[in-house]
């Protein structure tokens, strides 16, 4: 496994240097993403370099507008970067064209979105195997059974999404993400639509996938309680890395976030940065 690699230009030809750092699932170097041009240009990401080791549950946090979604979209190949390089499982993805990116996403990445994104006409079982079917990959029956059983979905496989609770639908989405044993699962506010009990179940299952199966998970969240399930919190402020926490607790996350709430940042649900301590959702 090779990651990260370094690209440089020699006589107009892009050379790719490879050195083995096989314990890194996702790496980014000097990432910049600018929206718009001239005076209206917004630097959503300004020189972000970060590594996500294999088998780690990482949370990405920061005030609204700090670049969390942009970072996730650039890391997952859902958006182009203005400059810089992203590697997934050793493959530099920032130079890939559409078809290569689609294939890489199918093979290497699992997604869990706030809105579940299940196909309403398909059963839970059909939804779970859909990405493998699209990639024409074989379903490992023993692994399917283990994932479905661990996620508590065994009795729900014939149900369609509207026959499932929100928590069950999100567990189907987690099973779908896990089934292909991806290099990384990107989770975008996975508990945003769930009550606290269902949310805690989903977070515990993401944790289990990391602890039990060595899955790598990168989760964007506003919720300090959700972030406290992770191994490491990467903090963004104004498009830059603003620090990180290891073995985070709700309190350590909240105080770190207060530190990055820069003038001009808007914390969702609160008029003033720093006025959000009751509850934990930033
Ligand atoms: N398509 C776009 N066009 C122009 N500006 C954009 C676009 N997408 C994001 N931005 C800007 O880039 C910056 C980072 O946005 P981003 O959505 O990544 O932040 P975020 O931390 O995910 O915010 P939130 O917590 O509110 O979801 C913001 O200033 C935002 O207005």
From TrEMBL:
Taxonomy, superkingdom: Bacteria
Record-level GO cellular component terms: membrane protein complex; plasma membrane
Pfam family membership, one: ABC_tran
Keywords associated with the record: ATP-binding, Nucleotide-binding, Transport
Record SMART domains: AAA
Signal peptide: none
GO molecular function, one term: ATP binding
Transmembrane regions: none
Domain ABC transporter, chain residue ranges per copy: 26-263
Stretch list, region Disordered: 1-24
The name this protein goes by in its record: ABC transporter ATP-binding protein
Protein species of origin: Cryobacterium lactosi
């Amino acid at each position: 496994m090779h990651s990260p690699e370094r690209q440089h230009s020699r006589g107009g030809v892009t050379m790719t240097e490879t050195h083995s750092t096989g314990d890194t699932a996702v790496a980014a170097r000097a990432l910049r993403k600018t929206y718009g041009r001239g005076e209206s240009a917004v630097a959503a990401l300004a020189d972000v370099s970060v590594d996500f080791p294999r088998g780690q549950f990482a949370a990405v946090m920061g005030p609204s507008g700090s670049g969390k979604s942009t970072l996730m979209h650039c890391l997952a190949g859902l958006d182009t970067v203005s400059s810089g390089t992203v590697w997934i499982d050793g493959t530099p993805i920032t130079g890939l064209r559409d078809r290569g990116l689609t294939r890489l996403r199918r093979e290497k990445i699992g997604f869990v979105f706030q809105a579940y994104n299940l196909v309403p006409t398909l059963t839970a079982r059909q939804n779970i195997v859909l990405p493998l079917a699209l990639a024409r990959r074989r379903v490992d029956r023993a692994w399917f059974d283990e994932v479905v059983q661990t996620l508590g979905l065994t009795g729900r496989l014939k149900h369609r999404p509207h026959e499932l609770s929100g928590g069950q639908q999100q567990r189907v989405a987690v099973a779908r993400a896990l089934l292909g044993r991806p290099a990384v699962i990107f989770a975008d506010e996975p508990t945003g639509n769930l009550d606290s009990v269902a949310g805690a179940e989903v977070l515990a299952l993401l944790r289990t996938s990391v602890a039990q199966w060595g899955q790598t998970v990168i989760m964007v969240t506003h919720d300090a309680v959700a972030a406290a399930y992770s191994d490491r919190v990467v903090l963004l402020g104004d498009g830059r890395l603003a620090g990180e926490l290891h073995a985070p607790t709700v309190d350590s996350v909240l105080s770190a976030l207060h530190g990055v709430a820069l003038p001009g940042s808007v914390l969702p649900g609160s008029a003033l940065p720093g006025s959000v301590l009751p509850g934990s959702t930033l």
